[in-house]
Amino acid sequence: MATELYDLTVPVYLRAFAAMSAFLEKGRAYADEQGIAHDELLNTRLYEDMATLAGQVQRASDGAKFAIARLAGVEAPSMPDTEASFDELQARIAATVEFLNSVPRDKIDGREDADIEVKTPRTGFHFKGLGYVLGFATPNIYFHVTTAYGILRHKGVPVGKMDYLGGIR
User: Fold this and answer.
1) What DSSP state is assigned to residue 135?
2) pLDDT of the chain along its 169 residues, tens only?
3) pTM for the full model?
């Protein structure tokens, strides 16, 4: 049996968001235990030209919702990137998960050869569906999830590989 495009996207992204939600909660608890202002943790970045912890969550969310919207030919929900608290970031994750769960499998499966265009402020990229998922969308999402994890580790939050991997099935 062939692997379907849905199986390469939605369940993978849902697992990433479950893990990210859990390690953000560990970050919140650590900040509270150590007397670190939430703003300090949420505004930390690994390098000056990189997004903050909050920005990494927002970019992971954008990556997932736009990937699925492009594949399925549906509109992605608007999320204005104004989250400034752990609660707001958790709500962003929940809204992203809700959107991912709302897209039916039959809108994604069979789209391996669909033309996908990604426009950025400086350029654009053209892909076929499978190449988009494997070579752009999924690596991009995991870049931001990994960077969010790295920021928390950098600040001393006691998270480890199993937190990043999430529930192993």
Assistant:
1) I
2) 456 999 999 999 999 999 999 999 999 999 999 999 999 999 999 999 999 999 999 999 999 999 999 999 999 999 999 999 999 999 999 999 999 999 999 999 999 999 999 998 899 999 999 999 999 999 999 999 999 999 999 999 999 898 888 765 5
3) 0.94
Contacts 24+ apart (CB under 8 A), 33-38: 34/156, 36/155, 38/85, 38/86
How far is Cα of residue 71 from the mean position of the Cα atoms in its chain? Answer: 16
Q: For residues 43 and 55, is the Cβ–Cβ distance under 8 A?
A: no
Helix (H, G, I), strand (E, B) or coil at 82: coil
CA 49, distance to chain mean position in Å, is 19
